[in-house]
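hey can u check if this looks right to u? its 172 residues, i copy pasted from the old doc so theres a chance i mangled smth
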Amino acid sequence: MGGHTLQWEVTLYNRRSHFTTGCHTLQWEVTLYNGRSHFTMGGHTLQWEVTLYNWRSHFKTGGHTLQREVTLYNGRSHFTTVGHTLKREVTLYNGRSHFTKGVTLYNGRSHFTTVGHTLQWEVTLYNGRSHFTTGGHTLQWDVTLYNGRSHFTMGDYFTHGGHFTTGGHTLQ
């Protein structure tokens, strides 16, 4: 986007919801799950198509997946779904959390795959961190996926039996 600002907004419940590119941050919680792209703000959820900045880049809801290239907040970070595969590096919020390989959208869910292994849980992106939530539990550290492995890049972590464990909760 080259530092430009998205030119319009989405209004819901007498509030304004907008995306800015100059500050390189999405200001509200964005949840991708169950084949829908949900934009939540103050407990409210936008459960329909949201056009971000042109007539081809948009999030499809109602059981559909992301069907166009979506640039979130700069010219290099974007989602491409040619064949439902993210084919470009995606930098999220801070330059440290990013997905570079093995991220696939299929079967109405967002799956993060790393060499045959799949994280099949809801992934919530907000507050400048990548949060993996599993059964109501949240791993509140930045997670970097690259070179076919899953790495926690911030916060304390350890592995045991091939599992990532943080705060007593395990991704199996």
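Residues 10-171 form one domain.
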